[in-house]
Amino acid sequence: MTTTARRVSGWLLPVALGLVVVALVTIALTRGPVSLDPDSAEGTVQEYLLAISDERWDDAVAVIHDDWRGTCDGFDLQLFAPGDFSAQLGSPGGFGGSEVREQFGAVGESGSAEATIPDNATRVEVTINHQNDGGFGNTWQEHTAFELTFDGDFWWIVGDPWPYFIFSCPGR
User: Fold this and answer.
1) Domains in the chain: how many in total?
2) Domain for residue 25, yes or no?
3) What local confidence, expressed as pLDDT, does residue 97 receive?
4) Report field, pTM of the whole predicted structure over 0.85
5) For all residues of the chain together, what is the average pLDDT?
6) Are residues 14 and 47 in the same domain?
7) Could you write out the DSSP letters of every residue in the chain?
8) Domain co-membership, 45 together with 83
9) Which residue of 55, 58, 89, 147 is surrounded by the most CB atoms within 10 Å?
């Protein structure tokens, strides 16, 4: 092998790897947020969270089932609205599974609490990332689960969804 051939092969591999890394980073940074199927439970939760993020309070409250929403409206939600946040589907390690869910809960054998969810209901777990405007980069996460029921060809949020505000509504 000639000296020139060795020089070319010596820098060709690092350059090729560098180009692959640049391409992958470019793809990751230019990819927009995922848009979930609006007819799915996950899509309903996404619409709820996007409405809160965009300060469309009435739109957010509109996807909460009437039986749970009661007299609550967008103003009630706005009082409990968080600052800047982002959300992602799921939670590290999954925190559901054995958790008792009051609205769908049932007592299992031997007196142990066992969660049962009807066929027309589901649970969507979400990780909420909060960003504080403080100068110290204060960020924190919380994990929450949304309970949804399928009623009238639509997935409705039931219970007191994050940010928890329904308990404070007049007449509840």
Assistant:
1) 2
2) yes
3) 35
4) no
5) 75
6) no
7) --HHHHHHHHHHHHHHHHHHHHHHHHHHHH-------TTSHHHHHHHHHHHHHTT-HHHHHTTB-HHHHTT--HHHHHHT--SSEEEEES-TT---SS---TTTEEE-GGG-EEE---TTEEEEEEEEEEE--STT--EEEEEEEEEEEE-SSSEEEESSPSS--GGGSTT-
8) yes
9) 147
